[in-house]
Each structure stands twice: as C-alpha cells, then as structure tokens.
C-alpha cells in the first residue's frame, strides 16, 4: 500500500505550528517536523492515546481559535474524564462526506429510508448517521435509542429500508419483530451496524430474523466518529478512507509496524482534521490491513473486522483471554445461540469462571453444557462452569452488551 509521506509531513508541520498538545509531546520527545524526511522517521514519532487526551480535559486538544469551533463531541467518560473533541465547519463537512461515501458503499441511495437508533447529543453516533444520510438525500427517521415499541411502529408505518444501530440493539429488534409477528410488515433490506465487536452467530441471527444484509461500519469519537470505514457488498474487509486517515497496524508489545496481513493494534493519523488533529493515535482496536484489491474494484484499502481490543483482555489462573476467543469457541458448537456472558469471581481463595450462554430450543442443554465445558478446557486452557439457558434468558441491551463481569475486585 502506498505510503502518503507528503501528506503526513504536512500534517506534522501543521500540528507543530498549531497544536499545544503536540507541541508539548514533540518537545518531550526531542523531535521536530523537520526531522520527518522518510516513513521510518514518521514511524519513530511518539504515539498518543486516550489517557493522554484525558489529561488535557476539557479543550487541551483544540488546535484552532475558539471562533473556528462550531461543534463539540465527547466520549462517554465512563472510566474517567471524557475526551472532548472540537470540530470546525470543515471537520463537520468532511465527516458527512465520509459518511455519505460509506452509505454508497453499502448500496444505499436517495430512495432509502434510514431509521437511526444510536444516541444523539455529545456522542458522535446519531448526528453522524443523520448528516451522511441527508447528504446522500435519503429520508432520515431520527429515532435515537430505546422505546422499542415505537421503533417497531415507525419501522412498519414509515417503511424503513435501512436500520442503523449497534449489534446488540439489532438483536433486540430482531427478536421483538419475531414476537410481534411483524416480519411481513417491515421493509428493511439493510443494516448499518457498528460500535461493538460481534460474532458470526449473532450476525446470522440478525440476518435471518430481520431478513437484511448487514454492513460493518467503523469509527471512534476521537477520529470524527463512525463512518471512517465500512465493508462493501463483498463483505471481505472494511474500506477506509485513506484520503482522510492514515492507518497503521502495530505490534502492541514492540510498538513497531507489522506487515500487511498480520494482526495488531490499529493506529490512526488524521490527515485533514482541523479542530483536534490526531497523530499516531493508538485506538487499542485489533485488526489487520488486508493486502490486495477488493473484488469491488475500489481504490480504497481495507482493514479486517475489529476482533476486539487490547484492553479487553482478562486474566484468570494465569491464562490471558479475549471475548473474541469465546465467540469463536461457541460459534463451532452446535446448539449454542449467539448470546453469552462471562462471570469471574473468587471462591475459597480461588478464581472461578462461570460461562452463561443461550441454547437453541431444539438442543439438549445438558449435552451442550458438556460440549462447551470440554471445548473451553481444550481450546482456552482452563476449566469453567458452563451454564446453559434457553434463548431470552440473558439480558438484552439497547446499547452495548456487557460480555465480561469481573467480581473479583468488588468490595
């Protein structure tokens, strides 16, 4: 993949001149924009990550005068101070351009009617989905989150053709459509789904129960929001807009770039962002660059689905585990449905794991529990307590589903 050295050099000069945040980082690292003469020089520039952004709360990331800022967005702040991201008029326009492009890659046109269920307000999701759809000329139904009965009514009455949501809420809607017997009354053909990783069994359930084609969309608040990447009709990787972002994949241990095709941590540099440009931002998302051209012929490169996050890892009995490993395990066991929840607790001075999961109606719960327990021991390396239940026995979420509950450190 071609490396945009000139664009990166221009960005480094711009942040050196206008960003107090990066001026401080450059000074501490002893580097200047003039030092960046090759891609190797760029690869030696310091990283930034969310902890750095939190330390300059509220507006330490701002790289333009106040009068140039037209909007503020923010991360949730559930684990500390939120990250505040200022946007200029051009930032807002660029984000809408990228989002419209994403919709076109998903086969949407101005004849579509898109029902938007992610939240509005400081979060980037709802307003981003709306701006891109309006730029496309599609009919927007800006529902926002929750109120599932009204979501279903609007979906049927307004003949929504596209649903935008998290995978967790897509599953909720699919189950409620089935319960209400609305499958023949809805007109959905596509789902634009993002915000959390999700396994193949969950995908199949949503596709089959809603009768839609689903498209993964990627983004994060710090980098515009959703819409910076999406998969196309071939569903063999997510096209990302390398005229707006430069993406690296690094080894999270050595912090060095890995070859295309190898998995690692996604690092993003914003090439055009004005309000809060980011240079070598560590997302902690795990993916890989997919080499070669997509069958669709797009000039835009691809990264793979997000497999999880480096900080999703949890450790029990000296074994490191990721939720993605559990997705893959359950995917291969007949009778297991898509939903699961891991509970980690301490009993008698020892760490224990209980894995709750849902079992399809025609499957024998005891037999499936035995298969899951044996599979976990052989593939992941520890013994667990498997706890099967029928579909609907685990909690549902209108936002993101909590997969791992660690009770070891609760007082």
What is the strand and helix layout of this fold?
Elements: H1 5-18, H2 20-29, H3 39-43, H4 50-55, E1 69-74, E2 84-88, H5 89-105, E3 113-116, H6 125-136, E4 139-141, H7 148-157, E5 162-166, H8 167-180, E6 190-194, H9 200-210, E7 213-220, E8 223-231, E9 238-240, E10 245-250, E11 264-270, E12 281-287, E13 289-290, E14 302-303, E15 308-309, E16 314-316, E17 319-321, H10 323-331, E18 336-347, E19 350-359, H11 365-379, E20 385-390, E21 404-406
Helix pairs in contact: 1-2, 5-6, 8-9
Characterization of this structure:
- With 411 residues, this protein is of the alpha/beta class.
- The protein has two domains: 88-309, ANL, N-terminal domain (Rossmann fold); 313-406, GMP Synthetase, Chain A, domain 3 (2-Layer Sandwich).
- It contains eleven helices and 21 strands.
- The chain has helices at residues 5-18, 20-29, 39-43, 50-55, 89-105, 125-136, 148-157, 167-180, 200-210, 323-331, 365-379; strands at residues 69-74, 84-88, 113-116, 139-141, 162-166, 190-194, 213-220, 223-231, 238-240, 245-250, 264-270, 281-287, 289-290, 302-303, 308-309, 314-316, 319-321, 336-347, 350-359, 385-390, 404-406.
- Strand 6 (190-194), helix 9 and strand 7 (213-220) form a beta-alpha-beta unit.
- Helix 1 packs across helix 2 (20-29) and helix 8 packs parallel to helix 9.
- The longest helix has 17 residues, at 89-105.
Which descriptors would you attach to this protein?
21 strands, 9-stranded mixed sheet, 11 helices, alpha/beta, 411 residues, 30% helix, GMP Synthetase, Chain A, domain 3
């Amino acid at each position: 993949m071609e490396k945009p050295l000139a664009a990166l050099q221009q960005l480094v000069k711009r942040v050196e001149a206008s960003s107090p945040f990066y001026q401080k980082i450059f000074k501490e690292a002893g580097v200047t924009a003039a030092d960046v003469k090759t891609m190797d020089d760029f690869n030696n520039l310091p990283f930034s990550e969310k902890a750095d952004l939190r330390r300059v709360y509220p507006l330490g990331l701002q790289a333009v005068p106040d009068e140039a800022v037209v909007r503020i967005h923010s991360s949730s702040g559930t684990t500390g101070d939120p990250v505040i991201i200022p946007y200029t008029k051009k930032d807002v326009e660029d984000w809408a351009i990228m989002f419209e492009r994403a919709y076109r890659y998903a086969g949407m046109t101005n004849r579509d009617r898109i029902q938007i269920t992610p939240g509005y307000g400081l979060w980037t999701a709802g307003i981003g989905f709306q701006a891109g759809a309006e730029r496309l000329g599609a009919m927007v139904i800006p529902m926002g989150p929750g109120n599932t009965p009204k979501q279903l009514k609007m979906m049927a009455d307004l003949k929504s053709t596209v649903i935008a949501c998290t995978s967790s809420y897509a599953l909720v809607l699919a189950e409620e459509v089935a319960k209400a017997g609305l499958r023949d009354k809805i007109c959905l053909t596509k789902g634009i789904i993002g915000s959390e990783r999700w396994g193949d069994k969950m995908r199949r359930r949503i596709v089959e129960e809603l009768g839609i084609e689903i498209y993964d969309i990627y983004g994060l608040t710090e980098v515009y929001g959703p819409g910076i990447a999406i998969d196309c009709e071939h569903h063999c990787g997510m096209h990302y807009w390398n005229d707006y972002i430069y993406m690296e994949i690094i080894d999270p241990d050595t912090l060095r770039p890995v070859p295309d095709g190898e998995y690692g941590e996604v690092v993003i540099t914003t090439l055009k962002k004005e309000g809060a440009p980011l240079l070598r931002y560590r997302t902690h998302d795990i993916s890989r660059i997919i080499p070669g051209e997509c069958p669709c012929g797009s000039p835009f490169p691809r990264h793979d689905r997000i497999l999880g996050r480096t900080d999703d890892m949890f450790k029990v009995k000296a074994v490191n585990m990721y939720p993605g490993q559990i997705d893959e395990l359950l995917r291969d066991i007949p009778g297991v449905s898509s939903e699961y929840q891991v509970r980690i607790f301490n009993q008698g001075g020892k760490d224990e794991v209980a894995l709750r999961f849902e079992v399809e109606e025609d499957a024998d719960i005891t037999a499936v529990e035995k298969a899951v327990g044996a599979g976990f021991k052989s593939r992941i390396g520890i013994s667990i307590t498997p706890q099967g239940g029928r579909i609907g026995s685990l909690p549902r979420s209108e936002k993101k589903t909590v997969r791992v509950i660690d009770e070891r450190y609760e007082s």
